[in-house]
Amino acid sequence: MIFLRGRIIGRLECGRTQLEVSEELGIAQSVISRLWQRFQDDGNVSRCYSTGRPRVTTPNEDRYLAVTAKRNRRSTASDLSRQLSSATGTTVSRQTVYRRLGHIGLYARRPVRCVPLTATHCRLRLAWSREHALWTPQQWSCVMFSDESRFSLQSDSRRTFIWRAPGTRYHQENTIERHRYGGAGWLVWGGIILGSRTDLHVQSVTMTGHIYRDVILEQHV
Are 144 and 200 in the same domain? Predict the structure, then answer.
């Protein structure tokens, strides 16, 4: 490449025009023009390498973004940018925040929604499991398990994101406990027993204890 640049400069010094050299060597005239201008300025035909755009944030500021995102996982990139500017005076874009957190393995993801369980719930469920751990299939054949799911007719944009690392989807700090769903919806109930199951029951009205007992349990159990 340096030899080719030397050929270009040699021809131009011999009085050839840039257009003639361009047509002879098959190189764009703009390239030849820039090379000739650089040679006239400093006598150098080597390629000038750029160090690239300077980094906006320091390592300490990168750590600040990481710590802040972990402390409040629901913070948006804009929130983190404003907090960094307020704390250090450094202004960065949302994309810079995404890149800095991505370098340490934190990405904006939708959280898992789950039904909240108290310590009492967990203790009672564990005790029940231990009591029935040695039951035989004959004993289980007399037990029916039922469950219901509510399908909301109201849209949920789920625009709430959290910062989390890959493989930590179901960690407690990355879940949102939710047991109330507003708006209209349908409730679907079903039961299973060893070797059999009930029909699905669809209920559109608001479910209460009396409706659950009179409409579902007494008719299907």
Answer: yes
